[in-house]
Amino acid sequence: MRRHVRPLLFTALAASCGVALAAGADQAPKGRLPSWAVPQSYQIAFKVDPAQQDFSGTTTIRVKLARAADHVWLDGASLTVSKVTVTDAAGKTRGAKYVEADPRAGVVRVDFGGVLQPGEITLKFEYTAPLNAQLQGLYKVTAKGQPYAMTQMEPISARYAFPSFDEPGFKTPFDISITLPEKDVAVANTQQVSEKPAGKGWKTVTFAQTLPLPTYLVAFAVGPWDITPTAEISPDAYRSKPLPLRGIAAAGEAHRMSHVISETPSIIHALENYYGFGYPWDKLDVLAAPDFAAGAMENAGLVTFRDWLLLLDKDSPARDVRGSFNVTAHELAHQWTGDTVTLAWWNDIWLNEAFATWMQQKVTEEVHPEYRADLDRVRGAQGAMANDSLVSARKIRQPITGNGDIMTAFDGITYQKGAAVIGMFENYVGDKTFQQGMRAYIQAHKFGNANADDLVGAIATAAGKGEAFKHAFKSFLDQSGVPYVQTKLARENGQTVLTLKQSRYLPLGSRGDSQRIWGVPVCVRYGIAGGSKVACDMLDKATGSMVLAGASTPTWVMPNANAAGYYRFSLDKSELDALVRQVARLSDAEQLAYADAIGASFQHGDLDAGQVLAALKPLTESKTPQVFTAPLARLDWIYHHVAKTDAQRARVAAWVKAAYLPKLERLGYQRKPGESEDDSLLRSTLAGALAFDYKLPDVRAALLKQGEAALKKNASGRLDLAAANPDLLGDALGVAVQTQGKSAVDALIAELPQTSDPALRNGILGGLASVEDPALAGQVRDFALSKPVKVGEMAALLRSGRDTEAQRDAMWTWFTGHYPQILKRTGSFAGGYLPLLAAGGGCSTAEAQRLQAFFKPRINDAAGIARGLAQTSESIELCAALKAKQDPASILR
Ligand SMILES: [Zn+2]
Questions:
Q1: Which residues make Cβ contacts (< 8 Å) with residue 655, sequence separation at least 6?
Q2: How far apart are CA 89 and CA 839, in angstroms?
Q3: DSSP one-letter code for 723
Q4: What is the pLDDT of residue 459?
Q5: Which residues does 805 contact at the CB level (< 8 Å), separation at least 6?
């Protein structure tokens, strides 16, 4: 920066802050916008007809300048700005210039044409922009032939809809108004306050001013939406007025939202009771989006979802019903952690996502204990551990070096590892104490921003803990990896002592450094006379030990009691043998931790496939579906990557058949009147695994019968999709596709554009994704790029069919041949996912190498490719290393 030299201004500048920033010398910011220009409020007005290709807008932003400047930096992307004015603190308005300084990142500069003094200025923009085709910003979707426009701003797409300071740290009130065709409806974050004719078939609706929000939570939608009658959520100790609640869906679909509307009040009350803080916005709308990039989005007061999560009826698949509740609880939890208290910068996105994931499980345990959210937490953490074992894994608080880091921050590390780490420290301080800390945190930062120190500090204060606690908590936030706790029992001075040693868990073939220290709250269960007991301690050095008071001799130990810890463990041979004998007596969560420990030892190279088959067997005795099916994924890997001969494959298949087929046969292939959701879910898990992974003839025959019935055409030439069990529709159609080939593929491709029901669409996509014949697989992939397949549905068709090298080669050839079209459809922000889409499931060095060779020169094609490439190729190499180590003969021992 250089000093501004015009003498006339110098005195005034010196009196205020000394230096004026000149546009010519000031570089476009690469990360955060500078802090000397801060938005105070927005008026955003749009003129939108979803039937057209473009919309227009007027944005007025009051901005506080902390220093004299002749320009400001802000964000705008794909906006054609026709006029900009700036009004200074004295009220004088002049023309200004809109300069696209970094179009790729969406950073723009507004030049004032002269220096303005510190104080409040007003920027006003008039512009037009396309209705986005890639599900970001203000985007266009079609349902039953009718066009709609809606928004998805997170993380950095508000800049496609209006010029803005598009960062979470800038929270201001928004005044939203929309001019739209008279026949259409508009909804936004807040209640509508007026509607006025705007001439020539248009009207203008205005909404109440919002409480302070960041740009990424601004939302609105325009089109022939169908809205349910307004329901009310009753007041409670933390909210004095009834809360209006509505469902919004594409034309003719709102009647299918009654289930969600009936579940929502209990979620809101549970959250208000936990936080001791009433739902803060003036209404709650839940909107079923006809096409959507994410699962759902927590916009303040107007929460948007993929339509299949909200449009439910008695024939909906059980997995949709359960998913609906879980996702609704997650998004509504965000109304506090995220919307009321917002992360200051994207490196702390875990303050939104980890907390919403953790809170969702708490709400679900309270409202639907039968959903076993406690086990979802354990399974989620274990999924994150697989990714966290990569050298290329993100940290929970990964520094942001560019837009790619923002786009790839929404991963399992942020959500599931984050939630598991929160749960671990909650377990350590006690849940009442943790709740006090959370309540204090919400109160201290309501309608403002916060960072990790604020949160960890609030919990430490509530718990009366000091620096050691904060350090332990942050050791999980600021470094990647899974702690590996190796334990050993010993007798010392007449006592039973458990020695502990920690390092980083790294699978066989990893090039990482295993030396890493966390502050790990370790809790172990061990045997005492007639039962068991739990002991806890903080392991914050490389080694440590615990006295197991009252342990029986000999005793046994489960090194992760209640699976509350985010760590993996290993036992020596004799201690593992002792634990295997106790498996049936462990809690469900502990049995899942046991399954993970067996898998981790296998990937570490300590157990062979035969030992894994033996060690996982006791879990199949469990009555709990999540435990009962826990071995399936590991068995599938052994079947496809270890077994070489028919005899070896037959042995694995026999293991699976003996463990699971009798249960599936007892469940049958149709829903029984009044059966539990658990049974419906288990049926579909087992049928899918046995029919596709192991191709058991009886299971395939039962599914084929349903698939053939579903493929029968009725009088109007439509398929009879309702003929299959809704829980099995995708699998039934999948077997039919594999059996009948082209006629089934053609029929499903013809049916999709005529079907608007999201559950039936998912069934059709699932059926098509099971295609095996190479020519037909190519036809299905080409179809994925065509208009009848929504952008948000495309991946469902492209991610399967990865079991054999031949299948992966075919996908690779297709992907590289269609790369420009894929990139164009997924948009500039899905980059982190592209390498996985291209080569996920790969298991040879050659596959990793060709992936690297293809994407290295294309790393800047979309935000996030670099991280996606590093993680996918590392996963492929680790798979190859593990495969090379295997002795297939161990299966038959
Ligand atoms: Zn979320």
A1: 613, 617, 635
A2: 56
A3: G
A4: 98
A5: 843, 844
313-318 long-range CB contacts below 8 Å, 24 or more apart? 313/256, 313/259, 315/722, 315/726, 315/759, 316/726, 316/759, 317/680, 317/684, 317/726, 317/727, 317/729, 317/759, 317/762, 318/677, 318/680, 318/681, 318/684, 318/727
573: how many CB neighbours lie within 10 A of its CB?
Answer: 8
For residue 14, with 0-12 CB atoms within 10 Å meaning exposed, 13-18 middle and 19 or more buried, which class applies?
exposed
pLDDT of residue 781: 96
Residue 329 and residue 371 in contact, taking contact as beta carbons nearer than 8 Å = no
User: Which spans in 276-338 are helix H?
Assistant: 307-310, 318-334
Instruction: Give the span between the Cα atoms of 858 and 823, in whole angstroms.
Output: 11
Distance 155 CA to ligand 1 centre (A): 11
* Beta-bridge partner residues of 199: 202
Place of tokens 């201690």: 575
User: What local confidence, expressed as pLDDT, does residue 23 receive?
Assistant: 66
Single-letter amino acid, residue 343: L
Six token digits for residue 496: 């039973």
- End-to-end alpha carbon distance in the chain: 73
Helix 677-688, helix 646-667: angle, nearest 10: 160
At residue 200, what is the residue type?
A: K
- Distance from residue 875's CA to the centre of ligand 1 (Å): 26
Burial class, 659, CB count within 10 angstroms (exposed 0-12 / middle 13-18 / buried 19+): buried
Region for 560 from its dihedrals, namely left if φ exceeds 0, alpha if ψ lies in -120 to 50, beta otherwise: beta
Distance (Å) from CA 274 to ligand 1 centroid: 18
Cα 256 to middle of ligand 1, angstroms: 24
Distance, CA 187 to ligand 1 centroid (Å)?
21
Distance (angstroms) between ligand 1 centre and the Cα of 330 equals 6
pLDDT, residue 24, reads 62
> 406 C-alpha to center of ligand 1: Å?
14
Distance in Å, CA 727 to ligand 1 centroid: 26
| Pair of tokens at residue 18 | 């000394």
302 C-alpha vs ligand 1 centroid, how far in Å?
Answer: 14
**Angle at the Cα of 242 (from 240 to 246), degrees rounded to 5?**
150
Q: Ligand 1 centroid to 347 CA: how many Å? A: 15
Q: Could you tell me the distance, in angstroms and rounded to a whole number, from the CA of residue 350 to the centre of ligand 1? A: 9
Task: For 686, list phi and psi in degrees, rounded to 5.
Answer: -70, -45
Phi, psi at 448, each rounded to 5°:
-130, -155
DSSP E strands in 460-583: the ranges are: 483-492, 495-504, 520-528, 531-539, 543-547, 557-558, 568-570
The encoded tokens of residue 413 equal 């590390």
Considering only CA atoms, which of 60, 86, 61, 59 is closest in space to residue 71? Answer: 86
Q: Which two tokens stand for residue 626?
A: 């999540």
Q: Where are the alpha helices (DSSP H) in 191-277?
A: 258-275
CA of 633 to the centre of ligand 1 (A): 26
Distance 67 CA to ligand 1 centre (A): 37
Torsion of CA 166, 172, 175, 177, to 10 degrees: 10
Say which residue the tokens 């909804």 belong to. 187
Q: What pLDDT does residue 21 have? A: 67
Q: What is the residue type of 666?
A: R
Centre of ligand 1 to C-alpha 153, Å, is 13
What distance in angstroms lies between residue 372's CA and the mean position of ligand 1's atoms?
A: 20
* pTM (predicted TM-score): 0.93
Q: How far is the centre of ligand 1, averaged over its atoms, from the C-alpha of 292 (Å)?
A: 14
- Mean pLDDT, the chain, whole residue set: 94
Question: What is the CA(39)–ligand 1 centre distance, in A?
Answer: 25
Show the low-confidence residues of the chain (pLDDT under 50).
1-18
Contact 344, 450 (CB under 8 A): yes
**Separation of CA 248 and ligand 1 centre (Å):** 20
Ligand 1 centre from 246 Cα, in Å?
21
